[in-house]
Amino acid sequence: MNRNTFPLLTEAERKLPLYVTSVGGWNNQERMVRETGFPDYQWIQTLGGEGTLHTERMSAGIAKGQGMLLFPHERHEYYGTKEPWEVMWVSFNGSMAEELLASLHFTQSQTLYVSHPDTLLKKMHAVFSLLDAQTSLTGFECSGVMYQILLDLHTYASPSEVRSKRQHYEQLSPVFGYIDSNFRQPISLEMIASRLNLSPQYTCHLFQQTLGMRPFEYINKFRLSKAKELLLDEMTMDVKEVAQRVGYEHASYFIKLFKREEGVTPSAFRRIHR
C-alpha cells in the first residue's frame, strides 16, 4: 500500500473529542525527520520489516507486531533498518485527545508491543473505507472508529514484551467467575489467590495492574452493583435484607459503603430511580 488520505474536516468536526486527520500506508517507509514534530497524534504500525525511532527522550527499534504512538510537536526521527519497512498509520487530534490518552495511561511518545495487531489494522482499514465513501457523516463515523482504536491500544498494547491488558483479564477470568457465583458468601484473598495458583501478594499486584484496584475493592463494587439491582427489582425488600443478600452481615457497614460509592444512601437511591 502506497497511499494516504486526508479528510475534509468541518468546524463542527474539529470540535469533536476525537477526529481523524489522515490515514495511510507505505510499502517501504522512507526516513522521516521532523525537527518540530507533527501537528497531530500518530499511531504508526509495522506490517513488515523493521525500523528505528528516535525522540528527545528515547531510541527504540520497531519490528512487526509493534508500533509508535507519537505525540504532537515533539521532535522525532524514524527510518527503516530492515527493508522493506512496511507501515500503516492513522493521525488524529481532538478537544479531548490528550485527556483521553492520559486516562488510558498514554502520556508521551513511545513504542508499543501489540498482542493482536490485526485488530488495530482492521479498524485503520475501516477508516480508509469511510473516507473513500465520503458522506456528510464521515468525520463523525471516523471519530467513533478512532475511539475504538485507542481502546484497542489500551487493551492489546504494552510498552514492553509482556502480557497485554487483555491477557491479564483472561488470567483473572476464573476469579471473576468465582466472585459472580459466591459474592453472597465471605470471600478471602487466599480463596481468590488459590483460584489463580498465585500468591496473595501477586494476586493483589495483578488486580492493581489490570483493574487499577485491589481485590476487595473489586468485590465491594461487584456487591454494590448487585445491591442496586435488588433495590430496584425488589421494592418491598428492606435495606437490611438487601445488605445480607449481597454479602454484608451488618446493614450499617453496607449503607456506609453504598453512600461512599454512590453519594446517596440505599433508600435515597431507590427513591431517585423509582
TrEMBL record:
Protein name: AraC family transcriptional regulator
A molecular function GO annotation: sequence-specific DNA binding
PANTHER family: ARAC-FAMILY TRANSCRIPTIONAL REGULATOR, HTH-TYPE TRANSCRIPTIONAL REGULATOR EXSA
Pfam families: AraC_binding, HTH_18
Keyword Heme: no
Keywords on record: DNA-binding, Transcription, Transcription regulation
Organism: Paenibacillus contaminans
Record domain HTH araC/xylS-type: where: 173-272
Top-rank taxon, per record: Bacteria
InterPro entries referenced in this protein's UniProt entry, alphabetically: AraC-bd, Homeodomain-like_sf, HTH-like, HTH_AraC, HTH_AraC-typ_CS, Tscrpt_reg_AraC-type_HTH
